[in-house]
Amino acid sequence: MTAARKPWTKRKDAPARLSGRAGVERRARWLYAHPLCLHCMEGTPSRVSAGVIVDHVLPLSRGGADDESNLQTLCRACDRIKTAADLGQKLVYGCDESGFSLDPNSAWCKR
């Protein structure tokens, strides 16, 4: 009988991940080259938001590569929405830093 893998140990089939100083430098280079949130710019209506999170398009937990072809820049609100969708969870909406509702169906967002 094989022992179960401890949750804090790496899977044998886990993709290689850039970490440490090299990971921090890649993140800084990526944010410098791609400073705006991709989801906000593609949304309807499009808006401009500063991107602060370098996100994997296909999560590493689902076999996504840890290279630049799998990266995108997101603002905190879009990252929260995408992460909940990736995990199959329902997002509990609230407000962003400026007090605007994050719920697109909110009466405050209707025109």
Key phrases:
two-stranded antiparallel ribbon, alpha+beta, 3 helices, single chain, 111 residues
Q: How does this structure look, described?
A:
The chain is globular, with a radius of gyration of 17 Å. It has three helices and two strands; from the N terminus they run ααββα. It has one domain. It has a two-stranded antiparallel sheet. The protein starts with 19 loop residues before the first helix and ends in a 25-residue tail after the last helix. It is α+β, with helices and mostly antiparallel strands and 111 residues long. The chain is 27% helix and 7% strand.
Describe how the helices and strands are arranged.
Blueprint: H1 20-33, H2 38-42, E1 53-56, E2 71-74, H3 76-86
Antiparallel strand pairs: 1-2
**Average pLDDT:** 81
Structural class: alpha+beta
Order of helices and strands: HHEEH
- Sheet having the most strands: 2 strands, antiparallel
- Radius of gyration (CA) equals 17 Å
How widely separated are the two ends?
Answer: 62 Å
Number of strands: 2
The strand line-up of the biggest sheet is 1-2
Count helical runs. Answer: 3
How many domains make up the 3D coordinates? 1
What would you call the shape? globular
Query: Are there runs of 5+ residues with pLDDT below 50, and where?
Result: none
Query: What percentage of amino acids are in beta strands?
Result: 5-15%
